[in-house]
Write a structure and sequence with these properties.
heterodimer, A: globular, B: mainly alpha, 17 helices, globular
Chain lengths: 410, 447
């Protein structure tokens, strides 16, 4: 069938509609890339090279393009992250993170590949929309596709980092160097979201499959919220707290997908853009936060440069969905969609997870500022690198712009 | 470039608390949540700068819990706006479930501030985190709790189960607070507990919906505001107790305010329509009122003037204006209530006023009726009674703490396997993935 001939203005509007998601995710990714490049300046000579810049640029491209990407890109992103981590031979933590990622993402991709192959075998086509149409005919045994479909989604679940797969996010944020950590996590999570969105495209045409996916992803989202909330309340290291907050953001995407209707490129870009900027700031500020061990004077960053510290904490607050930040809009939109779908259990567990995230963010604010330094005999803290403060401001200003853009569009 | 000086913690804490109270009075759950959060931040500001910050910071850390409860209520209300204010949807429906959780969250936030939950009940025993005005600061918390209950009554009174639970908890709190006010020897500590009792009785009035909202607010303001003013005056050189006239005026004012508050509460609980009246609740409220009235009048003893030259003061001191306002507010509120339809029978009214009258009369027994000879015996009995009251309060608090600790241990035992699930070993990652893959395969087959 021939495509309808569009007039020039209509083509312009269509082009703008297609470009909007890329503008949002592209702009946010530019912020993440800038923060990464600035943080690269913190590395001592010999520990970075033009390849590091190329890795950052490639990851940024993968994030920006994710709303329109194909599922296969997840494999490339995971491979790139693992290779970038394994490349640094002098850092045992990088090697450990690389090993853990390969250990969990590799088999997950293999299992999903097996699921996809089974679906292709059953339907005779690798294209998702065509597969649903064939399965809707009812010619294939239910056992076959109901086995293949969950397997095909597994890689997306692991990459999104929702609990119980939240450990890799916290591990990467704790163990990987600051310039790479946020980009690696965002690239993998966004690839996971893109994987699931693309795989479920058009599943509305196959009601039985849609019901199965809705149930499975609903259970996964429930587990991700409940386990993430419980984990957040017992964690003491700031980097791991940020990791769990990122995994809760992954759970938000899972909850959206559990409706059985994958989010469009605009929603995906909005989620990815926010995650990129919030994680860029939160992962950076977490490096300067103390591991809580009773009341103590505030961290040097907050005593010497309180406004830069607040900029970093703003990013963390947005990741946690604190009211007044762009992240809160995402949480609210997700909760409203759960309410519209009539899923009471998922809505209440989402609310509990939000409350845990809010509590963690507030606790982090208090621990960051600590007890009054004037009341103690604490020494004047040393300076905090300019690069780190710059990265915090890039993330915070990016988030403010993102929030303003969302409000303006609303 | 010179750096800006850090703000004075006492000023910044005060500003945060003042802003918080303004927001709590705003008719929005988000504003209330933010208000309580700011009050908690104010206490944190004071605590982090205090000399004994190692004690103060953990002591007031619980203030974030009521704020969290209100954030939850506000969030749920923002998600499901039409939870049916006025008409309660069935529990099985999403709006019905959300309305109940929302009501519980509002109640949790308010009751915890009013020392009505077993988690932070004894907070009024200790002074706040500022050295000069510290003993007064805890009075703000039950007041904030009452304001939340009053301002957002529509959210929690429409759920019958939540309303009944609130009545039980508030009346238990009123009794315990009156008991504690009686048991504590320092007058400042007793005043803080009397403020808690006032707030609990005010909350009961809101739950019963016996009088219009404005009237309930004015009745509470008279009782709690009177005790808060007395405490402020006590910290400022015991001004309300200096001289025979101010002392007598304050006794009458505090008693009038409490009697005015107790009248509609006891009239509704004792003689209200079927389904609302409850003799057990009425008895509990009567005990609390009688004891609170006794403490309010009896413990307000005249302070001796030790200064050789009396300081020159204004013709009408500010603290005396407070006493007059306290005395007038209660009857004015009752007048508004009567105008709006609160017309109990005179026998019911007399019976409702009996606990306050009995408490006030018993407290003034020794001095005014020439029974001074009984004073030594009463003092000896009073000492024993105070010890009994202390033992009863501590017994209840200890029991509640053990119950909460038991529940916490149970919860920890339940989540312990989940915490042990992951030890960080890379081998586990693969095993875990395999487990989840099998689960993903089995779950659809089990459907």
């Amino acid at each position: 069938m021939n495509a309808p001939v569009l007039s020039v203005p209509a083509r312009l509007v269509a082009a703008m509609d297609a470009a909007t998601p890329l503008t949002v995710s592209g702009g946010a990714t530019l912020g993440l890339l800038l923060a990464g490049v600035v943080l690269l300046g913190l590395e001592r000579r010999g520990r970075w090279s033009p390849v590091s810049l190329a890795v950052l640029a490639a990851l940024a491209f993968a994030i920006a393009w994710a709303p329109l990407a194909r599922p296969g890109w997840a494999l490339l992103a995971a491979g790139l992250v693992a290779a970038a981590l394994a490349r640094d031979r002098d850092d045992p933590l990088h090697a450990e993170c690389a090993l853990k990622l390969v250990w969990v993402i590799g088999p997950a991709l293999a299992l999903s590949w097996a699921g996809l192959s089974l679906l292709t075998l059953a339907t005779g086509t690798p294209v998702a929309i065509e597969q649903w149409a064939v399965l809707q005919l009812g010619l294939d045994p239910r056992f076959l596709w109901s086995t293949a479909l969950p397997l095909a989604l597994l890689a997306g679940l692991v990459l999104l980092g929702g609990a119980p797969f939240h450990f890799w996010v916290a591990d990467v944020l704790q163990g990987v160097r600051p310039w790479l950590a946020a980009s690696a996590v965002v690239a993998l999570q966004v690839s996971g979201a893109a994987w699931l969105s693309r795989r479920l495209e058009g599943i509305g045409g196959f009601p039985a499959g849609r019901e199965l996916v809705s149930d499975l992803l609903g259970i996964a989202a429930f587990a991700a919220f409940a386990a993430g909330a419980a984990t957040l309340l017992v964690q003491r290291r700031p980097e791991r707290r940020v990791g769990t907050l990122a995994s809760l953001n992954g759970a938000l995407m899972l909850a959206a997908l559990a409706a059985g209707r994958p989010p469009g490129p605009a929603a995906l870009a909005s989620w990815a853009g926010h995650l990129a900027l919030a994680l860029a700031g939160a992962a950076t500020v977490a490096r300067f936060l103390p591991t809580f061990a009773g009341p103590a004077p505030g961290a040097p960053l907050f005593r010497r440069h309180p406004w830069s510290g607040i900029a970093g904490l703003y990013a963390l607050a947005s990741l946690a969905g604190v009211p007044g930040t762009p992240g809160a809009m995402l949480w609210l939109a997700s909760a409203r969609s759960r309410a519209a779908a009539g899923r009471t259990g998922l809505l209440l567990v989402l609310a509990a997870a939000w409350l845990a995230a809010l509590t963690a963010a507030m606790r982090q604010w208090r621990q960051a500022f600590g007890v009054s330094a004037t009341a103690t005999a604490a020494l004047r803290p040393g300076p905090v690198p300019l690069q780190a403060r710059l990265a915090l401001w890039i993330a915070a200003l990016g988030l403010v712009a993102l929030g303003a853009a969302r409000l303006w569009r609303a | 470039m010179r750096r800006l000086a850090a703000p004075d913690p006492s000023l910044s804490g005060g500003a945060l608390c003042a802003t918080g109270f303004v927001l709590i009075g705003w008719p929005s759950l988000f504003a209330a949540a933010l208000g309580i959060e700011l009050v908690a931040a104010g206490f944190w500001c004071w605590g982090r700068a205090a000399e004994d910050r190692a004690e103060q910071l953990p002591r007031w850390a619980w203030l974030r819990r009521p704020a969290s409860a209100l954030w939850l209520a506000a969030g749920l209300h923002a998600v499901v706006r039409d939870t049916g204010l006025g008409v309660l949807p069935a529990l099985q429906t999403l709006p019905g479930a959300v309305a109940r959780v929302e009501a519980l969250a509002v109640l949790w936030g308010a009751l915890e501030l009013m020392a009505a939950l077993p988690l932070a009940r004894p907070f009024s025993d200790r002074p706040g985190p500022l050295s000069a005005t510290g003993p007064w600061l805890p009075v703000m918390l039950p007041a904030a709790g009452f304001l939340v209950l009053w301002r957002h009554a529509a959210h929690w009174t429409m759920v019958p189960e939540v309303r009944t639970a609130a009545l039980v908890l508030l009346l238990v709190t009123a009794c315990l607070a009156a008991l504690r006010a009686f048991g504590r020897r320092p007058w400042t500590a007793s005043l803080r507990w009397l403020a808690v009792a006032d707030c609990a009785l005010g909350g009961t009035l809101v739950a019963l919906h016996a009088v219009p909202d404005e009237s309930a607010l004015l009745l509470w303001l008279a009782a709690c505001g009177g005790h808060a003013l007395l405490l402020a005056g006590e910290l400022g050189g015991a001004a309300p107790r200096r001289g025979p006239h101010p002392h007598r005026l304050w006794r009458v004012a505090a008693w009038t305010a409490l009697a005015s508050l107790s009248w509609p509460v006891l009239a509704t609980l004792g003689f209200g329509p079927p389904g609302v009246a409850n003799p057990v609740f009425a008895l509990a409220a009567a005990c609390a009122v009688a004891l609170a009235a006794w403490v309010s009048v009896r413990r307000l003893v005249a302070a001796p003037e030790r200064r050789s030259m009396v300081r020159r003061e204004a013709a009408v001191p500010l603290i005396q204006i407070g006493a007059l306002a306290t005395m007038a507010a209660g009857p004015v509120a009752l007048l508004i209530a009567w105008w709006s339809g609160f017309e109990p029978r005179w026998t019911d009214s007399l019976a409702s006023l009996t606990p306050a009258l009995a408490g006030g009369w018993a407290a003034g027994l020794g001095g005014s009726l020439g029974l001074a000879g009984l004073a030594p015996r009463l003092t000896a009995t009073g000492g024993r009674a105070r010890r009994v009251a202390q033992a009863a309060f501590h017994g209840v608090v200890r029991f509640e703490r053990r119950l909460v600790a038991l529940l916490a241990r149970l919860a920890l035992a339940l989540i312990a396997p989940a915490r042990d699930l992951h030890t960080g070993d890379a081998q586990e990652f693969l095993l875990f993935l395999a487990g989840v893959a099998v689960l993903a395969l089995v779950l659809p087959l089990l459907r």
